[in-house]
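Quick start: read one record
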Amino acid sequence: MSAQQAGSPPPITGMYPRSEAEVVARTKALESLLIEKGLTSSDLIDKMVSLYEKDIGPLLGAKVVARAWVDPAFKTRLLENATKACAEMGIGGVQGEDMVCVENTPTVHNVIVCTLCSCYPWPVLGLPPNWYKYPQYRSRMVIEPRQALQEDFGLALPESVEIHVWDTSAEIRYFVLPERPAGTEGMTEEELAKFVTRDALIGVAKTKAP
């Protein structure tokens, strides 16, 4: 592991400092306060949530991966310059000005982290999950990635697989091109995109065979 390489089940070793119920309660309280002060509206909040769920984020990243799986020329362009390749599909913008895509293979597994804060390629992954921001994830994934993947995410990788940890920053934002699952031969891009999850794009999970 080099210095640079310094929707799914949640981590299971206490990575969450707060319970999900507490986070939900705090979110609702903050939303109510903002609406009460006239700084936003429930309609605007619903619109933004829908935007990130349906139009921005993992769904777009899944489409990029599916295109790479069926189009070797696009895959080459994606690995050479992810920002330009994504722009071909109309994907880009804020937090995605300088993106790099790293490919998983049978012998190499990639995972992304931001050791300084929570930099993240929003155009292809949407908003970062809460655990991505926690110091426990940011430190352990760099120090002992194999153990972190297995114990926190249930992803057991054999010792023969090399793990590369990529430190995302404001200058360069990484995302993963997962391996195409077996049994998907002949499927369309639309069908393939359904197998790609946010966690696979981060590298803490693999795509599942149908």
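The domain at 58-202 is CATH 3.90.330.10 (Nitrile Hydratase; Chain A).
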